Predict the 3D structure of the following.
Amino acid sequence: MTVSILLISHHNIGAALQAAVSRMVDHIPLRLDHLEVMFDMPLEEAHEDVEAKVQDLDQGEGVLILSDLFGATPCNVANCFQTSEHIRVVSGVNLPMLLKLVTNPRLPLEEMVEKAIDGGQAGIVNCRDYMCLPA
């Protein structure tokens, strides 16, 4: 069994990230799903949706919830679930973070949190440092 991942975000961000990583990695070796929190969605409904997804995803090793923006509704709703020892939330989800996680699926939950943060930060690069020089 492995830790499962839930992408919780505004609009289609989670769906787009899941689709992208699915195209880049032949086989995703862990359970991965997404949930959109719409701008006009009542908080109770968002909370119920997250709870249902977490229950569906958790295989006993825990669920890592990746949200798009710290302090925004998706992250705030997800953060309510960290009272469980089997759920952790990391904000600022990006494609490098997600790729790092799906290529290291056998880590325990706490190490997945660290791997997510490391992968996300490593994906932020000042491209000017790598500019192509004229031939």
